[in-house]
Amino acid sequence: MNDFFIASNRSLSLEVDDVSLEVRQIQMSQFDLWVGAADPIKNMLGNVSDYSDEILKKVIQKHLIECVVMLQLITDLDHPAILKAAQDQEVFIQLLKTGLKANQQYFVDKEPKSKRRKKRSETNDQDSTWFDSFQLLVSNGHSHDSIMNMTYGAFKLYTEAVVKREKQNIATQSNIIRMAQHAAAKQFKSFVDELKE
């Protein structure tokens, strides 16, 4: 899905028996419910973005309950309606495929995992929590309510954008410090005056 699909919280449509069904992106307010169902599916799919019917048949066979719960969170169908759809394997595969496509930001990691090992901290620092990520966005102008109403994809991309901008700011500040250290006083004052304009 493209960035505008994610940012505008669009959904996908699926035609089932002349009925148009809306398949939404998962919102952060329901993410805790989503993870329990979607994680086993994500692990089984690996890092694949093109889901063949054969792969999805295996996922459904092994994780039917998780598929039902996941689809219940992103459609207006209730539990019995999704189970009824599951009786027609082709329809259920299309429904699952549409749900995976709408929420591709969750199921496909675009960045390969780092091969370098992280050194364990000797101190008893607490691990990062979701509140750390929320604080990162709040400190950059988002409100708690806006974050909870974001889709997971928007949350992930906004967080990545903030981290990227902060890294760029650190690089810029480092360059300014280095330039200040090596520049003549008059040249550096001229540079600072240009920044103020």
Description:
With 197 residues, the chain is mainly alpha-helical. The chain contains eleven helices and two strands, in the order H-E-E-H-H-H-H-H-H-H-H-H-H. It has helices at 3-7, 31-45, 53-62, 64-74, 79-86, 89-102, 104-107, 130-138, 144-148, 152-182, 185-196; strands spanning 12-16, 19-23. Strands 1-2 form a two-stranded antiparallel sheet. A hairpin with a 2-residue loop joins strand 1 and strand 2. Helix 2 crosses helix 4 (64-74) and helix 3 (53-62) crosses helix 6. The two termini are 40 Å apart. The mean pLDDT is 86.
Observed structural traits:
rbstp2171; mainly alpha; 2 strands; single chain; elongated; 197 residues
Topology (elements, then pairings):
Layout: H1 3-7, E1 12-16, E2 19-23, H2 31-45, H3 53-62, H4 64-74, H5 79-86, H6 89-102, H7 104-107, H8 130-138, H9 144-148, H10 152-182, H11 185-196
Antiparallel strand pairs: 1-2
In total, the number of domains comes to: 2
How many strands in all? 2
State the helicity in percent bands.
55-70%
The CATH class of the largest domain is Alpha Beta
> What would CATH call the architecture of the largest domain?
2-Layer Sandwich
Write the H/E string, N to C.
Answer: HEEHHHHHHHHHH
**Main sheet summary:** 2 strands, antiparallel
Tally of separate helices: 11
